[in-house]
Design a protein that fits this description.
The chain is α+β, with helices and mostly antiparallel strands. It has four helices and four strands; from the N terminus they run ααββαββα. Helix 1 runs antiparallel to helix 2 and helix 2 runs antiparallel to helix 3.
């Protein structure tokens, strides 16, 4: 995916089309938010190359979204400061996903990057209130 402003809209549309095709239309909103946050983090971290994947995960009730990037650093879940404009992305990913994590990858012999992934699935309203018990497992 090119690293540009309109790419986010394209990726959200692409993900929504796949989810609808897989009879997972009820996951579109959560998956779009999670993808947007992961992509935004990659762009803000200075990525020049980004790859996005989405696929059903463990049956018809969950989908895994993943963002590969070449930016340095690792994602960290911080308690959000609601007085600041930024800093809530992974908090939202954590709240909307069943689990999420990251690991480093080799992009080339002299370059490393990371993949950040999240599993978005069908949950009851009570499960949304409880939140995720899997805070950024690697």
């Amino acid at each position: 995916m090119p690293v540009e402003e309109r790419s986010l809209r394209r990726v959200r549309r692409w993900a929504a089309e796949h989810l609808r095709r897989w009879d997972m239309a009820d996951l579109v909103n959560d998956a779009e938010v999670v993808l947007t946050e992961l992509l935004t983090n990659a762009v803000q971290a200075g990525s020049t190359r980004i790859t996005v994947a989405i696929e059903p995960c463990g049956g018809p009730d969950a989908v895994e979204v993943a963002v590969w990037d070449d930016a340095p650093g690792t994602p960290r879940l911080l308690e959000p400061d609601f007085e600041h404009e930024r800093g809530r992305g992974l908090f939202m990913v954590d709240a909307l996903s069943l689990e999420w994590g990251h690991h480093e990858i080799a992009i080339s012999p002299n370059s490393t990057g990371k993949v950040v992934w999240a599993v978005v699935g069908r949950r009851t309203p009570a499960e949304y209130i409880e939140g995720s018990a899997h805070h950024g497992q690697a």
